[in-house]
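Today's session is about reading a structure prediction critically. Students often jump straight to the picture, but the first step is always the sequence itself: look for stretches that repeat, for charged clusters, for runs of hydrophobic residues. Only then move on to the predicted structure, which in these notes is written as discrete structure tokens rather than atom positions. Here is the chain we will use throughout the hour.
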Amino acid sequence: MISSQAALHAAYGGVVPEVAARHHLENICPVIEKAMADAGTTFPELDAVAVTQGPGLVGALLVGVQVAKSIAFVHGKPLVPVHHIAGHLEAPGLGADVPFPALALVVSGGHTSLFEMAARGQYHLLGRTRDDAAGEAFDKVAKLLGLGYPGGPVIDRLSEGANDRAHEFTIARIKDGRPDFSFSGVKTAVLYHVRREGIAPVADPAAAPAEIRDLVASFQRAVVTALLRKLKEAAQARRPRSLILTGGVAANRRLRRDAATLAEELGLPLFVPPIALSTDNAAMIAAAGQVAFEQGRRGGWDLDADPHLPLG
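Below is the predicted structure for this chain, in token form.
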């Protein structure tokens, strides 16, 4: 069960923390009740209650943590804290048997990271973005062009069939050789192009002219190329048994297609969650919660939300 907030935040061009927390507060109990009813189960039948402890917006996290603690306390169930990114990393395992070790590329609005997984529940960070996350860059470019929020889906849609070679955007190179990412440069390059050419924001994204469609398609190609270049380099150096692509931006069709092509080139299986499990959802937190539960991890009644929680 998902209660989307996209429409609430669209008017602001991004997530407003206070609005997000209020939406959580109003909807969390109805969502849980509907999920339990659809599953045909009851709280006494559960083995444990898993909850996202962090990272993220502290107001929204606090709502989830307090409700989870209440359910666990009332029904005498273990409380299992989960890292948000661990949820994304475990999402592909909900419907497939992933061979390990695996290389996992996590791409979302707030995170762009490359992990090595020796097994389920074992995460070793190899690289991360040094500035904007890929999804954040999509949102900012979309806002610049008047395409609305969230930016990823609309850029994905407008890019289909457009000329993605209309503009050549430079892909950032990390001087120290680490498998890190940087997307502020390509985002700024789009800004300078828009100012130089006098491109005005569109009134109706559905009727965006070819000039806009070609621009966002070229931007999207640069971002996808940057993501998969690092994944390829890490795969050649680490020699994993499989590749994982996950996170909200993993719903992007260009990224999925090009990742599949890369996996075939490397001779490795690629695991990508279905669209419903790519964006933030509770099922992925349950998947990571099961792994943490089996590993003996528990949270006490003093468990608190941590907006900057590290993974590991």
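Discussion point for the tutorial: The chain has a mean pLDDT of 94.
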